[in-house]
Amino acid sequence: DGRTGKEELWPLSPNCEICKRLDGIENSLKKLFSLMEGRRIKPERTEDSEEFVYNGTSLLKVIAKDAMAYGRRLLDILFTKEEQVGHVLRETKKSKKPCLDQERVSLLIACVEKRYKPEAFNSKDLIETLSQKLRDAKLQVIID
Prior knowledge:
Layout: H1 6-9, H2 17-36, E1 53-54, E2 57-58, H3 67-78, H4 81-86, H5 102-115, H6 123-143
Antiparallel strand pairs: 1-2
Helix pairs in contact: 3-5, 3-6
């Protein structure tokens, strides 16, 4: 009868308005996924390991919108508010406060590096956002 069978699966003409809209949506989704590719977690990088577990929390499974938010979330998991208020991330000539436990700081940075592609975040920006969070913790205690 000359039919290919495709007509039964997709009874609409490829030039119909619905087909054109679906093609447009598909193309938009492809562009969105390609843009997100550099910012997302690589599936092969999410395996659990004992070295990325702290007090029973799998640090690689902590939810965050990006590497900076992820780092701030880990800071709250790895350090108490009291530790955050009374310490700095890294020793500087200006600060008289002691450094946070460098083993846990290294764990935090290793988690971010493990979970996110290098092009998804800048290490200097990560250190700055974590340092700012520590300064904000002090202000929050003063306000409370």
